[in-house]
Design goal:
This protein is about 0% helix and about 50% strand. The chain contains no helices and ten strands.
């Protein structure tokens, strides 16, 4: 069974940084495209970034140049380094495969506020 456990969220001031981590199990991680998604209050979940098995990356225009996705195949972990955070980045952040599977983790809350 697929299990995804996100961590690293918190409260940060605008302009600050956070590093999210996601531990995945139940998938063949090394060949999976992994992604970070987020869902802000009263909005649909959206794709933030994805990383292919060859470590090629894609980003949503709203985060490009500020966020960096990376993967650690030895530990079945995917990370999201978030810099220059803005209030509009406030959301619950989730990791999953891309395309996403039906199992989601609990997510990790990121709040950007002064």
């Amino acid at each position: 069974q697929v299990q995804l456990v996100e961590s690293g969220g918190g409260l940060v001031q605008p302009g600050g940084s956070l590093r999210l981590s996601c531990a995945a199990s139940g998938i063949i991680f090394s060949i999976s495209t992994m992604a970070w998604y987020r869902q802000a209050p009263r909005k649909q979940r959206e794709l933030v970034a994805r990383i292919f098995s060859d470590s090629t990356t894609n980003y949503a225009p709203s985060v490009k140049g500020r966020f960096t996705i990376s993967r650690d195949n030895a530990n079945n972990t995917v990370h999201l380094q978030m810099n220059s955070l803005k209030p509009e980045d406030t959301a619950v952040y989730y990791c999953n495969t891309f395309p996403s599977g039906s199992n989601w983790g609990q997510g990790t809350q990121v709040t950007v506020s002064s």
